[in-house]
């Protein structure tokens, strides 16, 4: 990685860290790069610099005790799938275990 990219990545990481701190103050903090809002745990991934942009992932997990049955999980997933399928930026993958 060139020096320019290293500095840019360092700057992006610093910005995401500050954003995470804000979210952890506003919502319930969790360990690592995580916070909890409305019983859903979100995690902000490390940034990656591409030739045209900075990419990072925000993932979420619903605790199993919130949706204890397989039928409940499938129903919830269907609702999520319906929402993301209508979004302007559609996910690259829409699988129950992995919406990217």
The spatial strand order of the largest sheet comes to 1-2-3-6
Q: How many domains, in number, for the residues? A: 2
Rounded mean pLDDT is 81
Order of helices and strands: HEEEEEEHEE
The fraction of residues assigned to DSSP E strands is 15-25%
Spans of at least 5 consecutive residues whose pLDDT stays below 50 are: none
Q: How many helices?
A: 2
- Main beta-sheet annotation: 4 strands, antiparallel
Distance between the termini: 26 Å
Find the count of extended strands (DSSP E, 2+ residues). 8
Descriptive report:
This protein is of the alpha+beta class and 100 residues long. The chain has 2 domains: 1-61, no CATH class; 64-100. The protein has 2 helices and 8 strands. The protein has helices at 3-26, 70-85, and strands spanning 28-29, 34-37, 40-44, 48-49, 54-55, 58-61, 94-95, 98-99. The strands form 3 sheets. The chain has a 4-stranded antiparallel β-sheet with strand order 1-2-3-6, with helices on one face. A two-stranded antiparallel sheet has the order 4-5. A hairpin with a 4-residue loop joins strand 4 and strand 5 (54-55). The longest helix has 24 residues, at 3-26. The chain is globular. The model has no long low-confidence stretch (mean pLDDT 81).
